[in-house]
Structure formats: C-alpha cells, structure tokens
Design a protein that fits this description.
Number of domains: 3
Number of strands: 10
Shape: globular
Strand content: 5-15%
Helix content: 25-40%
CATH topology of the largest domain: Rossmann fold
Number of helices: 17
Largest sheet: 4 strands, parallel
Order of helices and strands: HHHHEHHEHEHEHHEEHEHEHHHHHEE
Length: 454
C-alpha cells in the first residue's frame, strides 16, 4: 500500500498539524499497536471527550467542523448525529461502522484499518459517547482478512487497558465494540442493507422513512458512519473546530483533509492524505507522477467505479464535492482511476456493468432487469454485433436507472459511468454496431448493396 513517493510534493513530512489521519503511520507499514499509539497522543481526545465534554458538546463540535461522510455520499456527519433521538428513555442505541469497502478502485479504509486500527477504535469510542450508544459494530468486508485480525487485536488491547467495556476511564460510560465480517456484497455499502445483513437477513435496502436514527438495527436508534469519517473525530475533538477547518485549501466548501489516490497506469499509484480543494492535476502529476512512459491519459474517474468519466482537461477541477460537481460528476470516494489510451471504452464499461449487475440485490425492477440488459448490449457491441438502436437503448437505461427512479443509489451509480462514456467516446460504441445489408440491389452486379455503418 503506497503512502509516499519520490516526487517532490511527497517529501513534505506528515505532521499532527497537517495530517490528522496518517501522521502516526510507520515507515515500515506495520500496524501501530496500543503502546505506540498512546506514545503518539492516542486516546488523549477520548479522555477529553469522556471526562471533560458533555455529549451535546461533542455533537456540536463535529457539526461545526463541517465534517462530511467519507464513504461517497458526503452527508454532514454532525447533522446525521443530530437525528438520533434525544429521549433518554431510548437507552439502547447502536453505532455501526461501514467498513464494507467494495467500491472498485477504492482502498482507503483498508489502509486505516490495517495500519492504524486504534484510530478507528478511538473514533468509535468518542462517537459512541456523543450518540449515547452502548454498543458498536464494525461491519467489515469479508475479504479484508488482515484488517479483521488487526482490528480484533486492537479491540482486545483497548479492553485490557480499560478503554472499552464498563465505566471507561471512570466516566460511567459503557461501550462494547465488535467486528462483524460480511459475506462480500457491494450492496452492504448502503446503510440499511448493511443493517439487514448484520441482523442475519438478506442484504436488501429498506424503505426510508423510518430512517436508521429512529428505527435501525433490531429496531433501535442506530447511526452508521464510514471508517474514514469516524477516524476524523479524534482530531476534531482534540484540536478544535477552527484548526480542522484551516486544513482545507482556500475556496473549498468541504473541510479538513481527505484520503485521495490514483490507480491505473500511473507512475506512482497510491493513496495520500491531502487537503480538500487541491486541483486534481496536482494529485495526478505531483503525487501519482503522471502516466507511465508510453501511455497517454485518455480519461479518468474521480472517486470509484460509480462516478462519471472525465477528460484530461478536467484535471484542473478542485477535489471537493462541488468542485468535481462543476465538471459533471461526483467526487465519490476520492480515489481516482486513470484510463490510458490503449483501453477500449466498450470493454471497460462491459466489465464495470457486469460487476454492478452481479452485485444488484434484485429488489427493484429497474436495477434487477436494467443492469443485465446493459451488459447484454455491451457484450454485443464488444463483439461487433450491436444494432443501430443499441446506443439509444443504453442512454434510455441511463435515464430510467437514474437518481430517484430506483429503490436505492446502486443503479444510479452503476449507470453514471456508462452515460459519461457514451457522451465522450460515442464513436467507440458506434464502432461496435454491425453493418446491415441494404435491401437495394446493384444494377451492375445484381447483388445486395452493403449499407454504411450507422
């Protein structure tokens, strides 16, 4: 897992003042266990939250900081926390960590869980205190075997040190934390599908309302946050709102830092903690090192397979939600993918849509039937056996499976890259249309006239 490169921009040292998520990382990429984590100011913020701050004050700090969800949706974390009921009689509450990182081209949460497991434990402890949640679950992608092992060890260390369990740090607050490994389903990234899976049910999204804050896991108030989101909480509580806001580049509407990265045929693929608002070109050129020799950037996705494709000229867009929105797509997870000029877009989209079709939970008709339909058409185009009307059918599916027309956000995310690929590279799709024999007959030869390719 690459964190630094030889590029000049990456020789800047990670410090607590500039890199709240990653400054504790070891150069040898080994996990930071409890003793070392405490030497690096670990659980100082947790002690402050449990012994000095009121629960409402923690919620207000997170709200004022502008922290937004880092899983892709970008919903304000403090607002989400504020949806939990204030009624003290509802004393059974749950905090769930969404660690089901199955977005293709995304690996940021894995880095934190494998190398800084105590940062997530501390973030969940503080968050649970703020939410009055007595039990937490880390819903982990089943393939993340190393992350599961390291998280379980970190939880055991924290329990032995009195940082989990009963009467933590003498505060009177009790919190139990468990790792729950899922079966490896992309749909579990949707919070209510995650809740269903945790309960032992089929991983289908639930109708909302009621929202999980009112009726969540086992019918109790529940808050679901992403790994990276929760890992930001200790630094906010420890260093304050003004400091956290100062981390972003001027002009950014999103606060703090973000784990960003680049994959594909770049010279230095990796993930780095960077301030919101930096130009995508800086991420691509100074950190990822640009394209490998012999390859040219054809297009790129800013934040996982469920975001639209952008062209090289869009690299001047700023990496924050509204900045990427201005050029026509979403920032998503912030882990970008470079597509080189050797890649055929029809084949790339066929591969993507096969993944999304397979991962559909099958609950609603547009997603269940529409995504396999797109795969069937793309396979035909890839073989050069497409029909003239196939492109309009694909664009129709992009519309019918768009935002607000399906039960959850799975299908809209699946068709967003398809729509953008047709927009920018239509000729590659048209090249897959099979020529149709013309019904006219040549006067010279008496044979049918081949119709031009549509």
């Amino acid at each position: 897992m690459t964190l630094t490169s030889m590029g000049p921009a990456n020789r800047i040292a990670r410090t607590p003042e500039t890199h709240p998520l990653t400054w504790r990382l070891r150069e040898d990429a080994e996990p930071v266990w409890l003793d070392e984590y405490r030497q690096k100011d670990g659980y100082v913020a947790a002690r402050k939250a449990l012994t000095e701050l009121a629960q409402a004050d923690i919620v207000q700090q997170v709200k004022d900081s502008g922290l937004k969800g880092r899983g892709g949706a970008g919903f304000p974390t403090g607002v989400k926390w504020g949806l939990m009921p204030a009624d003290e009689s509802m004393n059974i509450r749950y905090l769930l960590c969404n660690a089901d990182e199955m977005e293709p081209n995304t690996w940021k949460d894995r880095l934190l869980m494998e190398q800084l497991p105590h940062l997530l434990v501390e973030g969940m402890l503080i968050s649970a205190r703020a939410l009055k949640a007595y039990r937490g679950y880390i819903f982990l992608r089943g393939e993340y075997v190393d992350a599961a092992r390291n998280l379980n060890r970190a939880i055991a260390e924290a329990k032995e040190a009195g940082l989990l369990g009963k009467n933590i740090l003498g505060s009177g607050f009790d919190f139990e934390l468990f790792v729950h490994t899922g079966a490896g389903r992309y749909i579990c990234g949707e919070e209510t599908a995650l809740i269903n899976s945790l309960e032992g049910r089929r991983a289908n999204p639930r109708a909302k309302p009621p929202f999980p804050a009112a009726v969540g896991v086992w019918g109790k108030p529940t808050c679901v946050n992403n790994v990276e989101t929760l890992c930001n909480v200790p630094a906010i509580v420890g260093n304050g709102v003004d400091w956290y806001k100062s981390l972003a580049r001027p002009g950014s509407e999103d606060m703090g830092t973000k784990l960003m990265g680049f994959s594909g045929k770049v010279k230095n693929p990796g993930v780095w903690e960077l301030p919101f608002g930096l130009p995508a070109r800086e991420l691509f050129e100074d950190y990822a090192g640009g394209m490998r020799d012999g390859f040219t950037l054809k297009c790129w996705q800013p934040g996982g397979a469920g975001t639209g494709f952008l062209l090289p000229e869009h690299l001047d867009a700023a990496m924050y939600a509204a900045g990427i929105g201005k050029v026509g797509t979403r920032m998503g997870t912030g882990l970008a993918m470079a597509v080189d000029d050797s890649v055929n877009m029809v084949s790339l989209l066929r591969n993507m849509e096969e993944f999304f079709a397979r991962e559909s939970c099958g609950w609603c008709t547009p997603c269940r039937d529409g995504l396999p339909w797109s795969v069937k058409i793309l396979r035909a185009l890839e073989r050069g056996e497409g029909r003239a009307e196939d492109l309009e059918t694909l664009l129709g599916l992009v519309n019918f499976l768009g935002p607000g027309k399906t039960f959850c956000a799975h299908a809209p995310g699946a068709v967003e890259p398809l729509g953008s690929a047709i927009k920018y590279f239509r000729s590659e799709f048209e090249a897959g249309v099979k020529p149709v024999a013309d019904s006219r007959v040549s006067l010279e030869s008496g044979r049918p006239v081949a119709a031009p390719m549509v």
